[in-house]
Amino acid sequence: MPTISDAITKDHRELEHYYNEVVNNSGNHDHQQRYGNQFTWELARHSVGEELVVYPAFEKHLGAKGKEMAEHDRKEHHQVKELLKVFQGMKSTDEDYVAKLKEIWGPLSKHMKEEEEGDMPALEDKLSSAQGQSESMATAFSYTKAFVPSRSHPSAGEHPPFETVMGLLTAPIDHIADLFRKFPQETISPNPSTK
């Protein structure tokens, strides 16, 4: 079974793939729109999943340092959510579509690197004493992503329980709207229960 670090890293690599599909296919607006939608869908769900599952684990298992890490990461998430909110409303034919995605990618790639190289190894070290806890957390992270919004809603905040309530209210609306958005051919329609 994958660990929570495996699950987080897998999502990061998917986001990187979707980003590259948009940036490296200039002129193919349909392709860019599909992968831009996929990027938004995955990033929105990933961010909220971390905020509801991973960051509380930082606080629980890593003490004062974990609280500091969680707050730092929440602030970075908020910045990215604000940028994503603008991007998700754009069309790939908009002149600054790729530029806006690159603006998101700057702080996002830095954040992902910090998580992979510092935050997650520190958490895994603490979880290693309880067999299966990291794997259980990975499962919870996966399930959580099935019920959260698939678009950016920065006004919902980054702290449970308010974020949880807002997410449960907005997620069904986002999921219905996703049925009418274009996504890459290999995903007929993103189905949160399969990711």
UniProtKB/TrEMBL annotation:
UniProt-listed InterPro entries: Hemerythrin-like
Domain Hemerythrin-like: 3-123
Gene3D superfamilies membership: nmb1532 protein domain like
Stated name of the protein: Hemerythrin-like domain-containing protein
Lineage: Eukaryota, Fungi, Dikarya, Ascomycota, Pezizomycotina
